[in-house]
Design a protein that fits this description.
With 138 residues, this protein is an alpha+beta fold. The protein contains four helices and five strands; from the N terminus they run ββααββαβα. Strand 3 and strand 4 form a beta hairpin. It starts with 18 loop residues before the first strand and ends with a helix.
Length: 138
Amino acid sequence: MNQFAMDFWDNLSTEETFIIYKNVIVDRKSKYTTTWWKVKSEEEVKQFIKNLNKNKYFQKATHNSYAYIIKWESWALIEWKNDDWETGAGMCILRELKRENAVNLIVVVTRIFWWVYLQADRFKNVIDASKLFLNKLK
């Protein structure tokens, strides 16, 4: 595993930084990267995705699937997923967020695809990439 962090986020205390775990899974030349950021509103999610897409690494990626859960002051939850043409990937990430009761957080799993079809293994890789990050929160 090749991991690096862009900025350091100690116990989710800083709202202005995000963490990237690059190439956490490499499977038949497909590379998976996990990125996460603390969010409090859908506007923050939009801004985060906009900033992420300015980076050449994420622009060149085949898929940037993500999910988030936001807890409002009224205790209502907003959840959303985006597959980015990797059908089902967003739901895999959202399911892991729910299992860990992770709120006010967006997780992006990026896949660089090298034309080797992984079939159902791609979902296992998305789930495992999400879990690698979420396990670090415990």
